[in-house]
Amino acid sequence: MSAAAEGGWSVPQRLLAAATRLFADQGYDRTSVQEIVEAAGVTKGALYHYFGSKDDLLHEVYARVLRLQQERLDCFARSDAPVEKRLREAAADVVVTTIENLDDTKIFFRSMHHLGPEKLAQVRAERRRYHERFRALVEEGQRCGVFSSATPADLVVDYHFGSVHHLGAWYHAEGRLSAGEVAGHLADLLMRALRP
Amino acid sequence: MSAAAEGGWSVPQRLLAAATRLFADQGYDRTSVQEIVEAAGVTKGALYHYFGSKDDLLHEVYARVLRLQQERLDCFARSDAPVEKRLREAAADVVVTTIENLDDTKIFFRSMHHLGPEKLAQVRAERRRYHERFRALVEEGQRCGVFSSATPADLVVDYHFGSVHHLGAWYHAEGRLSAGEVAGHLADLLMRALRP
Amino acid sequence: MSAAAEGGWSVPQRLLAAATRLFADQGYDRTSVQEIVEAAGVTKGALYHYFGSKDDLLHEVYARVLRLQQERLDCFARSDAPVEKRLREAAADVVVTTIENLDDTKIFFRSMHHLGPEKLAQVRAERRRYHERFRALVEEGQRCGVFSSATPADLVVDYHFGSVHHLGAWYHAEGRLSAGEVAGHLADLLMRALRP
Amino acid sequence: MSAAAEGGWSVPQRLLAAATRLFADQGYDRTSVQEIVEAAGVTKGALYHYFGSKDDLLHEVYARVLRLQQERLDCFARSDAPVEKRLREAAADVVVTTIENLDDTKIFFRSMHHLGPEKLAQVRAERRRYHERFRALVEEGQRCGVFSSATPADLVVDYHFGSVHHLGAWYHAEGRLSAGEVAGHLADLLMRALRP
DNA sequence: AATGAATGAGAGTTCATTCAT
DNA sequence: CATGAATGAACTCTCATTCAT
Q1: What pLDDT, in 10s, does the model give residues C153-180?
Q2: Mind listing the pLDDT tens digit for each residue in A51-76?
Q3: Which domains does chain C have, with CATH numbers?
Q4: Least CB-CB distance to D158: which of C27, C113, C163?
Q5: What's the whole-model pTM score?
Q6: Measured CA C31 to C1' E5 distance, in angstroms
Q7: For chain F, which bases have at least one atom within 7 A of a protein Cβ?
Q8: Three-class SS of residue D125?
């Protein structure tokens, strides 16, 4: 009954959803715990019953994004298609999932430095694994000769992910291009830059 | 005499320098006015004598970055070299000046949303002009046929600037590559992505 | 079965033991109900099933101490030994039982003011009876002339009990002196101070 | 002018006085910062302008008591009177000054454990020096043979100071005995207990 | 008998800003 | 020009207690 109230979501789900929206809109520091609990329709005590701190909420958002992206990338990387197809699809997919979770991603890249040291280290470690898996695809293609080796693979990865992070700064759902179209274009740019 | 003290810098200069370093290291919200004045070796009264508010300090940092980048871009765009040379040099130069002013740039992209509405509008307008001038170069090349038209010019610009914004997240002065080398690689990637 | 678990103690006993240790170590205000129930291995609901409030736990500790001390004193006072022997034994015994229940005694003297008014009055009344019974021994000796009458009896009692309260501040079980030795010395000091 | 307001006391003095009274009446934990600033007629900001924390206020009270007692004891100990006179006067004086500063002393013995670890260590070190100076007097008399050596000197000191700490529990200014009378009696008890 | 989610009031602390000097 | 005392509102977080289950 009380679970059915407020849209059938549980209290921690509602809190996480409210925090995500507010953190994305206003930034972590500019969002008060009071705003979050009001948006979720609960009291402060309830928040601290489920989350140890405001920091914890942020960490939960990160965990969700990291898990999602890691799974998608694994999926593409493990395919047995030619490496250029695998990289292209991974490069496009990270754009689509970023746009589909634009709030989470905005928070991710804007508020990461607000995490405490040990949580930050953990997030960074996961992030690094993600980057390395992506870089491995680039290096594989460079070794096979299907990609140019003119640019070090890690710079290529940073180049592409730079544009992915930047999506939050300009992409709007009501804009001219759909998520898929943007993804296609950005993946194209990457593939063309890698042509030997 | 007091200007000669503390390295010969004026009080407002010292305040701005201290604020820049602290904002870049800790973020705008995490930096207190008290920290700034202590780092600058003055008192709060002095800060409020020269700057209307903490917000004003942030705005000054922005103004400095915007002015610098605008000037550099104008310089390259106005040259009468072939468009591919002009774009390549502009693309590389924005990387170098970003790295040379990495603190300012970190602040720029991380704390923009802390500005009040009217200042934000002003900054965004200047930023848009900058983007458009850059885009004009891409479009000029596309019209001439020296660049591929497969990707809309504004997406190309966002792709490149994405990687520029991202520099603050990974570039370290003590790293493997010099600013010039990174700039060369990133400009290369852009030019290769634009090959017809 | 659940009584046999956790060392065969009942839930209220476990709660009282946990509360006693924590109150003595950290003080009443610094100890949260959450800590108590965790230390006792039960939940908050269980605590509030057996005790009306956190205050009640404190009161139970007091009741235990008061009952114990009252009984011991009665035992010595009712003996038909000479008054100097009765007083000496009572004075030494209160030291030993205080040391043997040092946690309870620490709480008693440090947290008494946390009780509500009516419970406080009740505790103080019992405490006063205890003092008066002790004082009666001193006065009896003074009337007989075996003790000096230079100092009013109530001051003598406060003098001795002051040192008893103070035990919690310095006595450690691992120290140089056993409880019995300390008791002997303190009782000696009292008796010597009372020599005519 | 603003200094003349509120009785001519400075803001930090008023805060310290208010805190002392409230800590003595209600205990440290039961006294809120809000109560203190209201009693002092200032705002919370003012309190934190002068004191780093609520803890700091407590520490200031301690520093005042410690300084006072140390000075008085030094004064008596350095005299060239016979040791029994020096000890008697010191033992009586600590009672008088304790009664004259009963609020501070209550706080001292009841709330010491609320200090943070490093401040606590500092206070304890000063306290120990005080005890040792007192003990040295007892030992000197024991060596000369004017005091009995039946009880170890440190136990004697704890015995006396126990009764001093205890004063806060029963002494009232309106009571039967003046501070000087109580001091005389307690010093008498000590000296008689030390008779060979 | 026992759970644990949820409350709501209040805790200590921070901070940008003002203003008399 | 510059000081620094003082403000007042907002901040994150804690906690004893209740109640439906």
Answers
A1: 999 999 999 999 999 989 998 889 999 9
A2: 989 999 999 888 888 888 889 988 88
A3: 5-50 (1.10.10.60), 54-194 (1.10.357.10)
A4: C163
A5: 0.83
A6: 22
A7: 1-21
A8: helix
